[in-house]
Amino acid sequence: MSAYIIATYDITDPVGYEPYVPAVIPLLQKHNAEILVADYEARGLEGEVRGVNVVLRFESEEAALAWYNDPDYESVKKTRVDSTSHGTVTLAKQFVPASE
Question: Which of 91, 62, 73, 94 is nearest to 25 (CA)?
Answer without folding.
Answer: 73
